[in-house]
Amino acid sequence: MDGRRHSVDVPISRTLIALRRVRSLRDPSTNSMSKLSSLIDNFNWETNSNNAITLGFENDSPNHNFSQLRSSKILNDHELCYGSTPQRSLHVESLNVGPLNHDTGNEAPSERYCVDYGEKELGFNCNEPEEILMQAEKKHRPMRKGLNRKHDISYRVTGGDVLSPRLSISDTGSSCGISSCWSRSMKYRDSNLLPDVEERPLLLGNTEENIDWKLDSGARPYLETPRSLSQKFMPKSFDELVGQNVVVRSLLSAISNRRINSLYLLHGPPGTGKTSAARIFAAALNCLSSEIDRVPCGMCQECILFFSGGSKDVKEVDSVKINRVQRCKLLIKNAEMPPVYSRFKVYIIDECQLLHRKTWDTILSGMEGLPGHVVFIMVTPDLDKLPCVAVAKCQRYHFQKVKEVDIISRLGRICVEEGLDFDHDALKFIATKSNGSLRDAEMMLDQLSLLGRKITLSLVYEVNGVVSDDELLDLLYLALSNDASSTVKRTRELMRSRIDPLQLVSQLANLIMDILAGKFPDGVSDARRKLLGTDNSEAEIQQLSRALKILSQTEKQLRISKNQITWLTAALLQLSSSGTSHDGTSDARSSMQTLHPQDGDFQSISTGESLKQSVVCACESAVYEKTGMRDGEENLELVWKRAIAICTSSSLKKFLQKRGKLVSVRHTQGIAVAELEFNSPDSVSKAEKSWKVIATALQHILGHNVELRINLASNNCTKFKKSSLNLFNCSRRVHLKSQFSSENSDVTTPTTVITRDKYSESCSPECGSRISHTCCHGKDLFKTIRNNDGNALSIGESTPDRSLPEKMANQNHPKYVLNIKAVFEVALLENCHVSFPEGMAADTLAGNGRELLANLTVVNDYGAAK
Ligand SMILES: Nc1ncnc2c1ncn2[C@@H]1O[C@H](COP(=O)(O)OP(=O)(O)OP(=O)(O)O)[C@@H](O)[C@H]1O
Ligand SMILES: [Zn+2]
């Protein structure tokens, strides 16, 4: 037998088994294969010495068989032979359809059987999958053994519908007169199914709503020219899926036990292989290999078609696109139709957390009536966002973060395949940094590979904004040595070279742990080792431990903060205060003891040689109970000076230096209450405008949440008290919400809180996190400020001078307007409702307050919304 003509890529035994399996697996109700079964039974399969296959009809009457096919309308695709005459013929070249001809040892082209069909009856355009398949075959050729370029054939057994000898690339150019012919697959189509619906299900009747499945992202995930390493090394079999053994085992077992569910849900952290697994599973469901536990084989017709992106029965659906009810219904309608070629129709819906509730409902209800060949695979990194009912109806598979060791070994293999040299430490670092996401790790490797053929640790550091160990040790030494200005300078330098603050904190923490464990990172110079020493005293160990604690808390803060650099600097300045300094010049601990005289109940700024010694890390502060002690003048001046120094605006600096004074700092309930005095009402107003900057500066210096109280200097106050109003005592607070409440807000975004000022009767804001009350010297300007639940946060008891606000507003009193504005700012920030004293109409608020009104829900005492 002519091996060249009948070379085949898959052993014949597998072909036959696959054929039988396809028949047996299919749902009888949709098993259009059954319509072909009698025909198939009449086929004669023979293998030749070259593992090739010959197929023939037993009754020796091919024409009869094909006319049978034709009359039953099973065939509406056919083999095309492009030749000089536009004759359409059923061309079975390599698989000898016809009288079994064992006499094929000659070079003559194989016998052909041509059947003419009427033009109308047949779709006669070139079918894309065939082209793809042909390309795919060429592409996959190296995978296959025993191929003969001249008479390359493969077989097709698809979806039970088709038995299609196909793809004959013939150099002989005989019969049809061209060098290559390819066959169309025969497929069963019910006469009432619209071809368009089948081919492009969502095109139906609405061109605007076209969804080109092929264009959906990821529809052709296995690109010939991958754009990234991650795409190139996208796993194509369960074996290649790293670190998800349990999932792999259960999916394989579902296939081998033929217990295929209709709805799967793959969930877990990003970059862990969910989408890849969905694709592999889809391929495995349709794979024709007989080795059930090795599916998808990557070699059978189905696999080739799938991995080349040409499968018509596996579709990746864009979650956003099917959120339109119409589209979703079309999708379900499409799913009802039998598969085009394959055994199963699989829909992969990635990012399914983006599906609307209605879409879920449509899918879930639609699925109930769907035939057994339909499988939906939902993929999401965020299970919590899915409706419970949907989750309950799915078979769920959780993907774990990929272990570092697995990531390292995978990266190593990729490097070898890509011809990259690498340091093991570099890969280790990448693995650690990628936090269980293999995709992230591969992407980083990809990026690094563009910079050089060797992946070194220093390269990785550079790309990731990581400090080298030497630099790290220098910084730690400076921080622990109580050298504030050098520490700040060095930190700034590092930040300028785009070091990631979080990364730096984590590196410092690791370094400290290493030192505590008596080990220094490799490559640290001896000089530096000596700096920190390996034989640490008890005091030093304690200092390092405390420093570690500070860093670990700082890391948490940095994660929720926008102003990371400042927090980082503040944390570094606190490291030396956490114990004995390394240069032995000062003993910060004794200083700390002054600050925490007893059990940490009270702390206040006291004299000390360094400001940072007097700062206690906000994060380590326990709840400091109420206190009341005025601070040393000298120290307060120092704090004030430093706070002014870090304000960026020079005019503000000058103003604060000249007009303002920090008169006290008290720590209460974890908040530093800073009282400022200004020497004139105008200065108070001005300071109020810049309160955020001032509070933030103080916060940085004090390392605490700050509540700011801006007062008129007491000597002036008397004078002003005599006037009708005192509006200058409003205080505001910048606090770290995360410490007091569960609400997420950025630490550095100061939260404005207006508290009852010190001149008014004591306010008892049980509200804890949000105290909102303002008053003007005993007269409540606004009766209540409510939070978004509508609960009053604090209610002014005093009888308001109802005519006052109106009067003031009408007079457009600048100070009054300022205060109105402040209150409205608060209300805006806090999303409050503002209630007005009875009789006061919101629109009487003149000036600056009015524009803010537009954004507020304002309710007056009569309940009328303005
Ligand atoms: N478990 C894994 N085994 C092998 N490769 C993996 C694995 N996880 C991720 N990858 C690599 O990362 C790429 C992307 O993976 P995939 O899209 O499957 O992850 P995912 O979990 O679906 O991510 P996402 O939730 O962000 O969509 C793959 O092409 C592959 O190279
Ligand atoms: Zn296969």
From TrEMBL:
Domain of life: Eukaryota
Entry keyword set: ATP-binding, Coiled coil, DNA-directed DNA polymerase, Metal-binding, Nucleotide-binding, Nucleotidyltransferase, Transferase, Zinc
Matches recorded under Gene3D superfamilies: 1.10.8.60, 1.20.272.10, P-loop containing nucleotide triphosphate hydrolases (3.40.50.300)
SUPFAM superfamilies: P-loop containing nucleoside triphosphate hydrolases, post-AAA+ oligomerization domain-like
UniProt keyword GTP-binding, yes or no: no
Keyword hit for Nucleotide-binding: yes
Coiled coil: none
Enzyme Commission number, as recorded: 2.7.7.7
Residue ranges of domain AAA+ ATPase in the record: 260-409
Catalysed reaction equations from the record: DNA(n) + a 2'-deoxyribonucleoside 5'-triphosphate = DNA(n+1) + diphosphate
Protein family (similarity comment): Belongs to the DnaX/STICHEL family.
Protein name (record): DNA-directed DNA polymerase
Lineage: Eukaryota, Viridiplantae, Streptophyta, Embryophyta, Tracheophyta
